[in-house]
Amino acid sequence: MIEFINVEKVYPNGTKALENINLKIDQGEFVAVIGLSGAGKSTLIRCINRMHDITDGKLYVDETNVSNLKGKQIRRFRRRIGMIFQSFNLVTRTTVLKNVLVSFVPDNPLWRKITGLYTQEQKRKALEALDKVGILDKAYVRVDQLSGGQQQRVALARTLAQNPDIILADEPIASLDPVTSKLVMDDFKRINQELNISVIMNIHHVEVALEYADRIIGIRKGEVVFDGESAKVTDEILHEIYSGNIEELKAALEESHAHV
Ligand SMILES: Nc1ncnc2c1ncn2[C@@H]1O[C@H](COP(=O)(O)OP(=O)(O)OP(=O)(O)O)[C@@H](O)[C@H]1O
């Protein structure tokens, strides 16, 4: 379980990005975080794996008080939490398989790190992860020969290979076309349901969020203004989340229509 207790995040330049955040997210939930640009969505999910430090309150992942982690403990903790970015973060001039194998580097002794050799078991796990996202046939293809959607699935396979409890996804479909977005979202949903991995996704496409996530967290100006089942999100609630900016809400909805 992930638990935020009165969490606040103030950046060193004085910007208050999160305030009074209280949330409990159970293992296996699929949560979409929505809100205007600058509302604090990215900050919220990046506090979970300590990419950002909170400045007040408490944040727990299971029994771990995230703020108390130091050095090696942070690295070990992050092994349990996969992270997917809009930009895929892959090494494009090498093969799909090598990109997935990279997830094992932290576990390997120095000589394996230097030689770039992996165990048969690691290769088997990497191929298994590629199979889970339907691109096993691309294992020996160079990443720069794949479409954006396929690249995002490689990123997903790399994360799966590390056997995470949680996947944090920061705008994972923002640079994908509507058809590909759907395939990638289907992968997230399947992984969530079949492997019981929690998915916490920051997403601009409201309708996609409503279709795929079980739970919506609406953020406005660093505060949670809605937290509930996707099925219970009404136009009034969306207005509340995006209030003060109807034009942006309309644009977000139109963009989402194009994605479903
Ligand atoms: N490294 C930083 N230093 C200072 N302020 C920051 C930093 N990162 C984000 N902010 C500010 O914190 C607030 C929340 O930003 P955040 O990126 O979390 O919003 P967001 O909802 O994810 O936005 P977007 O949808 O545009 O990505 C914004 O006012 C932003 O300008």
UniProtKB/TrEMBL annotation:
UniProt KW NAD keyword: no
Example GO molecular function: ATP binding
Entry-linked Gene3D superfamilies: P-loop containing nucleotide triphosphate hydrolases (3.40.50.300)
Domain ABC transporter residues, every copy: 2-246
GO CC entries: membrane
Keyword Membrane: yes
Pfam families from the UniProt entry: ABC_tran
InterPro entries reported in the protein's UniProt record: AAA+_ATPase, ABC_transporter-like_ATP-bd, ABC_transporter-like_CS, ABC_transpr_PhnC, MetN_ABC_transporter-like, P-loop_NTPase
UniProt keyword list: ATP-binding, Cell membrane, Membrane, Nucleotide-binding, Phosphonate transport, Translocase, Transport
PROSITE patterns according to UniProt: ABC_TRANSPORTER_1 (PS00211), ABC_TRANSPORTER_2 (PS50893)
SUPFAM superfamilies, alphabetized: P-loop containing nucleoside triphosphate hydrolases
Domain of life: Bacteria
Name of protein: Phosphonates import ATP-binding protein PhnC
Phylogenetic lineage: Bacteria, Bacillati, Bacillota, Bacilli, Bacillales
